[in-house]
Amino acid sequence: MVNNLLTMKNITKEYFGNKVLNNINLEIAKGEIHALIGENGAGKSTLMNILFGMPVISSTGGYQGTIEIAGEPVHINTPHAAMAHGIGMVHQEFMLIPGFTITENIKLNREITKENIVSRIFGKQYESLDINKMNADARTALDKMEMGIEEFTLVAGLPVGHMQFIEIAREIDKTGLKILVFDEPTAVLTESETQNLLSAIKKLATSGIGIIFISHRLDEIMQVSDRVTILRDGELVVTMNTKDTNTHEIAQLMIGRKVSFERNETKNRTLSNDTMLKLKNFVVRMPGEDVKGVDLEVKKGEIVGIGGLAGQGKLGIANGIMGIYPAKGEVLFEGKPLKMNDPKGSITAGLGFVSEDRRGIGLLLESSIELNTVFTCMQIKNSFLKRVGPIKFKDTKKIRAHTKRMIKELDIRCTSSEQRVGSLSGGNQQKVCLARALTQEPKLLLVSEPTRGIDVGAKRLVLDHMKKLNEEQGITIVMTSSELAELRSICDRIAIICDGKVEGILPPDASDADFGLMMSGSKRTNTEQGAIHNV
Amino acid sequence: MKNSRIILSGKTKNMLADNMVPIIFIAFTLLGFAVARGVPMSFFLTELSGRFYRNGFLVLSLIIPVVAGLGLNFGIVVGAMSAQLALIIVRYFFIEGFGGLLLCFAISTPIAAFFGYLTGKLYNKTRGQEMIASLIVGFFANGIYQFLLLFAVGVIIPVPATHPMIKTDGVGVRMTVDMGSLKYSLESVLEVSFVWAVLVVSILYLAYMLCKYLRAKQMPLAVSGGKYSFVGMAALVLCIAISLISIITNNSLMTVKRIPVLTIALIAMLAVFTKLIMKTKLGQDFRSIGQSQHIAQTNGIDVDKTRIIAVIISTVLAAWGQLIYLQNMGTLNTYGAHNQIGMFSVAALLVGGASVSKATVKHAFAGTLLFNSMFIMSPEIGQALFGQAILGEYFRTFMVYGVIGLALGLYVWNANRKAGLTLDPDTVETRTSI
């Protein structure tokens, strides 16, 4: 094809002798939305890093293969060069500076300047910024996205949905933008924000920009993309037209094993009537996820889901219980009041927590899998320690044995149990989080967004494992998730949080409409808030 | 007494916590006036203004590295040494007067720029540890400096033993170097009466503030300072009133040492430069890398280069600052003059309310004044309370290092508090979009 905007030919990349990309070919036509999917570690990020000239590529020995833009072979070795060639990227982790205004972020390193006396002598670096023109440009870009927000607002404190749009505004503000890469743009968005984003992406494509769309959400890909390329373990599996395929097929090709999210009922459940956890007028101050008075009861042995749209406060509940964000109200755990704002107390009481913020507070990224797995236990329970006189040492042998078991059980893909957690892929990091929480042998496990940013196969594994824990060990689980399908696949009942309060509690087989209405807060159920719902 | 009636609301508490260091220093100076009776205002102002001319420039040289995310650049010591090398070269050839000083500036600039470049390179290698690296750079450079002046001069570079600057055995530079008529060469160009200067500056600044206030609505990027500017204006009016009264009644304030216009002009120019450069592309790059190196890099900013430029600017400015300092002192303590510069300038900046990640011209000025007030008052307090001025001297040292430690501690504490890591739900600020 001659009218290809971008052609990547035979791209091969090795990291220290480990082949992570093998002969990848990718073609993007003008105005095309090209979905790129694959499991974690399939090589999507590496491919995009190559395209974007990230320093991590050149510092590890570069890559083989050629990249052509509009038929011209190019060599991209810095992000700056990538931008010069008209490649833009909307990052998964926001590349916005919180202390800057929206304008400053949109115009980051592309500031409009005007001459002054000093700059005439010393050069362009010393030209003054033309704030008015910058604001005007930012305004235009924001208007294209149909965002009403004022361009001189500070980015700090904006909702994530806005940040995503600012990132896109930054890209479309660039003149000569030819190719725009979206790296899991919807991972942190609510459903309505996602819809806005997808329509914005479609609009962009009609203006002739080639779009590479990376996502884990298959339905989004079906909805928005023209073609889809599937990567698996560094190999290109297939590129096909989206309309000739379906989610089922894509999922199958992506992981090569059959997956389903169906709910399989099991026996042997020990559901008792004892209350395990009781929240009364529970308030948490978690920025962006404020909880404003939640009443909730969790029975021993059940799996309770907490759902709702982003920003409504569902994430705040678990964080508040664990004492990570300031909280007040009454929490009864096994009938005894739990001290607020005391993480150690919460852990000692028998609560385990898998945080939604695995890079921030979930993991010691620079430490090994071993240490991460047993860290909390060593701190709180004094297990995995050898006592020699008054001095305590790590019991390396025991730690290793335990970690090896966990690695096997949770299928953590790693080179060894001593591998640095930071070098694992997202899904495997999540599994390490889970391994650590399980090592504490908690009576109640709080799991927040366990499947965020991990692929379908890993999701199923994580969910199955939680279900297994619940069935075999009788661990009560409170799972918070943005993905309703997940909650419905394993939970006994699902509490929907809206505006910091429990909007209602539904059984997993309630209709989609019920869930949808409740999430949007447009339906107050007859069920009293926080009332006990018998399963 | 004043505080007892004020009920501490959450906001006041925050303000107190944010400005803990300046408040301690103001309180200390006021205590000095209270216990040490008979410290004449004219003496205090003479001392304070003198120290301000001496140190102001050096403290200002610290701002750009802070904005660029390098933290507090203790490495300005390297700049100070460059200045001293330049001075020694100039004095070796017996060059005198204002021209000699200009030559010092000219010679010190490339030396400082070169060492600033090397320092910047080092900071890029010690990313995240720039402050401790800058301290060590100072010590390391001191070693080279001593080697150069104590050994190389005389052994490698032939010098006549009879030269008054060279030690009698012909090897090494003497402990003190007389600066001849380089002393006060900047100061003596033009001096005006302190009170008159206060009057003129206050009036001009008041006019400027009024203009700015009237145009305030048109400045989207300006940091909002509405309430603050009223306090500032009131203070300026007070200054005008006091100076007018002094001029009319010819009271003791008229005896305050005269102001060296050129020195003040240089300090003012640097202040303006520091402000203006933040409004240029380069300044925006400084701010970008200061906020996030990673994001700046992905947006194509050459982070390493920009950091090096920041360090070079800082080092060169420090060299100039040291020259201003030395010509005011009159003699060069060859092996000691630079030692305390880094610590004291950093302490002064911190006293003004700056932190590891935030520093402005205001912080530098307020800090220089407050820090030196403490310096002037501590022997007086020592004398008044214990009958020994020397106790005050000990106290100074304690305060210098104490304040750096305190400011570093408070910085982390404040950062945690703002991130919502405190336990009291009521004090957590809810994030709101404007």
Would you mind describing this structure in some detail?
The complex is a heterodimer of chains A (535) and B (434). By secondary structure, chain A is of the alpha/beta class. Chain A has a 6-stranded mixed β-sheet with strand order 6-9-10-3-11-12, with helices on both faces. Chain A has a 6-stranded mixed β-sheet with strand order 18-21-22-15-23-24, with helices on both faces. In chain A, strands 2-1-4-5 form a 4-stranded antiparallel β-sheet, covered by helices on one side. The longest helix of chain A is centred in the last third of the chain and has 18 residues, at 456-473. Chain B folds into 2 domains: 3-189 and 268-427, ABC transporter involved in vitamin B12 uptake, BtuC (Orthogonal Bundle), CATH 1.10.3470; 194-257. Residues 1-8, 220-225 and 421-434 of chain B have low confidence and may be disordered. The longest helix of chain B has 30 residues, at 389-418. By secondary structure, chain B is mainly alpha-helical. Chain B has 16 helices and 4 strands. In chain B, the strands form 2 sheets. A two-stranded antiparallel sheet of chain B has the order 1-4. In chain B, strands 2-3 form a two-stranded antiparallel sheet. Helix content of chain B is 68%, strand content 2%. Chain B starts with 9 loop residues before the first helix and ends in a 16-residue tail after the last helix. Chains A and B meet through helix 3 and strand 8 of A and helix 11 and helix 12 of B.
